[in-house]
Fold this protein.
Amino acid sequence: MISPTVTMEYKSKKRLTIIATGLFFFLGGVEYAIIMPSLYLYIQDLGGSPSYLGIVLSAFSFSGLLVAPIFGTIQDKLRRTKILIVIANLFEIIGNFMYFMGFNLWFLLLSRLVAGVGAGVQSTIFAQISRSTHEEDRASAISLALAAKQVGLLLGPGFNLFLVKIHFWIGPFEVNQFTSPGLFMFILWILAELFFIFFYFDLPTLPELLQQQQQHKLQQESADSLYDEDIANQKDNGYERSLKLPTEFAHDRGTHDSPIPSMNETNENVANIASTEGLKEEQPWSWKDEFLKEEVIVLLWAQFVFFFEKMCMETALTPMAQLLMDFGEIENSIMYCLCGVEVSGIQFREVIFCFILVKILSKRVTDRWLIAAGFLMEMFPLILLLIVYPQAPHHNRSANMGWFVVAFITQIAGLAFCGVAIVSLYSKLVSESSQGLTQGIRRSVGGIATILGPLWAGGAVMMGYIMVGVMLILFVMIAIMVAISWKHLKAPGDDDLTKARNKNKETSSIAHDEKSPLLINAEDADVEPNFNSD
């Protein structure tokens, strides 16, 4: 048995790692939310055209596209997420300081290119989440990370309300409403770097925990064997009598007060875990078998369409608001904040949706239904924009405010469903051994979309039918693909997982209200977890 101190130490490190992960995504949301409202005006101040906004936004995605598979491959080899986060965050620090310096348009472009390298490590974080969570808990775990980002999107525009009023000099560098977001994020990322160094830990993955559990099971068997030999010896010596089980053996036998299941339960649970989590010995990895599966191709295309539309709408938001309603920087910040409130509201609904449907109703609702719901919510505003936007009067706030808000709020609402469900289902359809690389490929596909989306919207924002029509056609295409491949868009272990849960519930109800957890969470089991803490 391990001491309570060791168990508490692991629990503390796990909680700190979760907080550090949330902090990374939170600051990513804050950075995006305080830069976006002023970026278009920053470019105009430096003499750039509206199309240059799409180029700058694409630069951030382009560098992330290139490094995501590299980060993922390194993580697959080393299984060290912490060092990758620490290194990637240095690029965020440097990139934001360059944004603050802002000498000219080219330097501004380079600053977002450098910062994008730091954002590319997100794929390795999702890979780590995939390796360390059960399939039924994965969507809710991913939603927590995305919820942190949405909170950052909510609070970020609020910082602009005081950043726009700043104007002073630091040596040769001017701090004003355009450069202050870069300085602000430079300071926040430095503080975050210290937090990652001291409070992020490489926790064990599910296969490692299962291996430790099996080792513990062997120790149990040895203890049982010694106890049976002792009973047999006493019988041979004529001392047959009722014996009270010693405390240490009582735990091994799975008594009412034991936190560890009996041997039969343990063997059964190990079999269930192996079948539901796919922890059996894997076949040699092949990129053809991994990426040429119908369901994987559909999900990668869904990732592309989702991010393409997302970035198109986000790029077009500020120019459209300026054209239709004469919005300036303050109005844009308030608009982003209100959008953030709606995102957060949807995220709260999405958290409820994930925690209720995934944790309580997960036997009846799968990731593919979340994807379908998200697609419907994304298509509605595109249809509305296609009908209204090309004919809308310019510089008329009262005439345009209603439909504009409805379109963008509905579009934002679908982000949570698509974003969580695509990542969750994709992680279940690819092998555990290559989660880093495959998540990096998924991130790169999304990166291509986030490059092309701003470029397309930046150049076509004044051509409403063409800009919105292309996005709608892409969504119709992916909707047809999802419908055709519906039966394949399901995790391999979904049916077995449901059976395993039902069987474990039956076992638990027979055991005198005893809660017999699957010995896969080290904090609940009497197994000492091994992890690397850099």
Observations:
- Residues 4-45 form the longest helix (42 residues).
- Residues 239-282, 340-363, 508-528 have pLDDT under 50 and may be disordered.
